[in-house]
Specification:
Largest sheet: 17 strands, parallel
Shape: elongated
Strand content: 35-45%
Number of helices: 2
Distance between the termini: 74 Å
Structural class: mainly beta
Helix content: under 10%
């Protein structure tokens, strides 16, 4: 009798004991071909497989991928020192994925590994129908639900991956012509890590290719880390009919490091919520995806929003109007787009623990840290700093407010800058009165409000050549160039500096010694995203700040 048959008999006998006791769980170790365990589960009254071999390699020598044919939970047994690992062990077949999902499944506490001594896997998990050559054919159940929790996906790099469309951790297939549509229910991916992925990590982008209103009812990706992904971490398409109901999509608390330039794209889907993200140290996508070196993230259609994102050290090779983009009615909350160093403990070692003085603490929409919260384990040494503006104007902070918090003990000088036809009216909260600038020392959670009122006096006189003055740029709003006019009372070193609305310095437009009199500077903002910016003139003891609007 062949060893495989002996093992199958032993497995069936062992598992039959569990079935006889009407157990809903079975324990499986690595001595068995995992396909045999699945075959048994789907014919017995068992709904949960516990993987009991710590760090063990679970695999199959079958020439097919493993198939989820009926609802099942596959999880590591609680208390294991290391996560069990799934691979596909057949070295000679044409199989390119580990699992094909046709029905409800929960994966928990597992590593999906694309390693194969002859031919690395293209895919970890794929959702869709079984191959046409399979008898009997298995079709994906409409409304199937998928939960992936506390799992890791690694090393899905197919041969010639640089020029291959494959290399995905999680992938939705398109049905062939005449086959039933593939439409899932709820897909939830939480507390997972994706490392070394040759293309998109999560790809649900076939919806335009077949007649279905949406690929799924809801997608939630939360508290996940992505490292060395060569295309998008998440790529998601709705159907082309923008009048139909779209999926609920929530993407929040992601840490993304050393990945391709464009880390997320959501096409034609209303009500995408994308927030609380850290994106650092990007590299260019693989040559097959060279056009995706254009922006960081884009959402589309009304109700879709981007907020609370920090980016650092990103590389772009393709021009684009806005690096963090919302089109077709989507919106970006520009006040919560940051550019600070999140202060990881050891990026090179893949340790993204936020140090205690990281500005990421308290910067998320929910008051927690930006990024995957599994890395937010230190007691923060920064405290919240809330600045509220009533009326039209802005406030410059020194030192700059790079995040909605400051280190404890920081002394901050605030300068209120009213818009044209408005005037500063006073402070309230931790600062009171009408002193401008004003100073406060931050020793705990601090809240300050500034009020601007519309001016009732005579309009300012035209710019004169013999006085210090900074005029409003013209045109304003503009796309994509404008003229900045100013005058100096006397000769001296002069600078014009551009800031974003957080008071962060973006670039120095001018820094040189100028003569007294009128001056003009043409500013080209073609490489900046649409938004509101500040420009500040300094010469001698004179300082003035104005605001302009870039609209593309």
């Amino acid at each position: 009798m062949k060893l495989g048959n002996v093992m199958a008999i032993l497995l069936m006998a062992a598992l039959a004991l569990a079935s006889a006791a009407q157990a809903s769980k079975i324990e499986v170790d690595t001595q068995y071909d995992f396909k045999l365990a699945l075959d048994y589960v789907f014919t017995a009254r068992v709904d949960t497989i516990l993987l009991v071999t710590s760090g063990g390699i679970y695999t199959t020598a079958d020439t097919m991928h493993l198939q989820i044919k009926k609802p099942v939970v596959i999880m590591a047994k609680p208390g294991l020192a290391e996560k069990p690992v799934f691979r596909h062990g057949d070295l000679d077949s044409s199989v390119i994925e580990i699992f094909r999902i046709h029905d409800d499944v929960i994966f928990q506490g597992i590593i999906f590994d694309g390693y194969n001594a002859k031919r690395p896997m293209k895919y970890g998990l794929r959702v869709g129908h079984g191959p046409a050559t399979q008898i009997p054919r298995i079709f994906a159940r409409e409304g199937l639900n998928i939960t992936i929790r506390d799992c890791e996906f690694r090393d899905f790099f197919p041969p010639n991956w640089e020029n291959d469309a494959g290399g995905n951790a999680f992938y939705f297939l398109a049905p062939a012509s005449g086959e039933p549509v593939i439409k899932a229910g709820n897909v939830k991916i939480e507390n997972c890590t994706f490392r070394n992925i040759g293309d998109e990590a999560i790809r649900i982008a076939e919806t335009e290719k077949y007649k279905v209103t949406r690929a799924l009812d809801s997608l939630i990706v939360r508290n996940c880390t992505f490292k060395n992904v060569f295309a998008e971490c998440v790529r998601f398409y709705a159907d082309t009919d923008t009048s139909s109901a779209d999926a609920y999509v929530l993407i929040e608390h992601l840490t993304v490091d050393s990945c391709g330039t464009r880390m997320a794209y959501f096409k034609n889907n209303k009500n995408v919520i994308f927030r609380d993200i850290l994106v650092t140290n990007s590299h260019l996508p693989k040559p097959y995806r060279a056009e995706r070196a254009d922006y960081v993230v884009q959402v589309q259609l009304p109700g879709s929003t981007i907020s609370h994102i920090d980016t650092l050290n990103l590389i772009f090779a393709v021009p684009y109007s806005s690096r963090i983009s919302a089109s077709k009615g989507g919106k970006v909350n520009g006040a919560t787009i940051y550019a600070f160093d999140p202060l990881y403990r050891n990026t090179l070692a893949g340790d993204y623990t936020l140090l205690a003085d990281s500005p990421a603490y308290g910067s998320a929409h929910d008051g927690q840290a930006l990024g995957d919260l599994r890395w937010a384990t230190q007691t923060a040494t920064r405290v919240p700093f809330l600045l509220t503006i009533e009326g039209m104007g802005t406030v410059l902070c020194d030192p700059p407010l790079i995040a909605p918090n400051y280190p404890t003990g920081t002394t901050v000088t605030l300068t209120a800058v009213p818009d044209s036809a408005w005037q500063f009216a006073g402070w309230s909260g931790a600062i009171t009165g009408a002193a401008n600038p004003a100073t406060v020392t931050v020793n705990g959670s601090t809240s300050i409000a500034v009020k601007f009122e519309q001016s009732t006096g005579v309009a300012a006189a035209p710019l004169q050549p013999a006085v210090y003055a900074l005029a409003q740029n013209c045109p304003n709003p503009f796309n994509a160039s404008t003229t900045l006019n100013f005058s100096l009372e006397r000769e001296g070193m002069t600078s014009l500096v551009l800031y974003n609305m957080l008071g962060q310095k973006l670039r120095t437009l001018l820094e040189k010694k100028l003569t007294a009199g009128a001056h003009s500077l043409n500013f080209d903002a073609a490489d900046l995203p649409s938004g509101i910016y500040l420009y500040q003139l300094r010469s001698g003891s004179f300082q003035a700040t104005r605001k302009f609007i870039l609209m593309k």
